[in-house]
Amino acid sequence: MRMRKKKHLEEKLAVCDNLIRIPPITRDYRVENSEKAYIDFAELFKNDNPVQLEIGCGKGSFICTLAKRTPGINYVAIEVNPNVLCGACSLAMREDVKNVIFMSCGAELLPKYFRPGSVDRIYLNFSCPYPKKAYENRRLTNRRFLDIYKEILSAAGEIHQKTDNMGFFEYSLEQYSLCGYKLKNISLDLHNSGFEDNIETEYEKKFASQGFRIYRLEAYL
After folding, report:
1. pTM
2. What is the mean pLDDT of residues 9-31?
3. Is residue 107 part of a domain?
């Protein structure tokens, strides 16, 4: 079911100081906008700290918690749903998180705004698995997107992925390998693996409470 637009959404977004405002773009999964409009993140953050990116930040609890734990890293979180994005921005403002900013755009447009090699880590937390074959090219671990990540990741960059969907996890493992990524720290049951410093997302808490296994991996070039 499509989420109903929040009342006064535009006004709420207008007061979000931590939101990068970019021109509205019609999402087209067949054609990607190649005209560059690189964002100067050093100027935005007023420092030269490393940049990490979360694609699909949801309500923002993961990225805000992570940013507070590691103030020496700058975080960018993108979310295509403006209703959800509004909540994430508001959370960061309420908790006075200074080292995170938000963008409303799809992952297919990352090369338009991010310079090559400018991102040290990408987080893919509980991305939509798009189980129907017809929508395979929308999966954020589809080869189309993995090639985009190669462009914006630094030489030592990594992708950290979590999901509750075993089929999507298996698909992702295959796609990483086909695209030349190497894999490490693969977990088929994260919450029973002894992994330390895990930050749970909203979806993760929900799925784990229902008994679903959480799958996790790290991919690098």
Report:
1. 0.90
2. 58
3. yes
Which region among 4-18, 113-127, 173-187 has the lowest average model confidence (pLDDT)?
A: 4-18
**What pLDDT is recorded for position 21?**
67
Contact residues for 58 (Cβ-Cβ < 8 A; gap 6+): 79, 84, 88, 125, 126, 201, 202, 203
Please name every residue paired with 220 in a beta bridge, in sequence order, or none if there are none.
Answer: 158, 182
Chain centroid to CA 185: 19
Look up the CATH number of the domain holding residue 182.
3.40.50.150
The winner for highest mean pLDDT among 2-6, 80-84, 206-210 is 206-210
Residue 72: count of CB within 10 angstroms of its CB: 8
Q: Are residues 81 and 144 in the same domain?
A: no
CA dihedral 196, 188, 213, 131 (to 10 degrees): 130
Sequential DSSP letters for 13-26: HHT-TTEE------
3-state secondary structure of 95: coil
Cα(71)–Cα(68) distance, rounded to whole angstroms?
Answer: 6
β-strand pairing of 51-55 with 19-20? unpaired
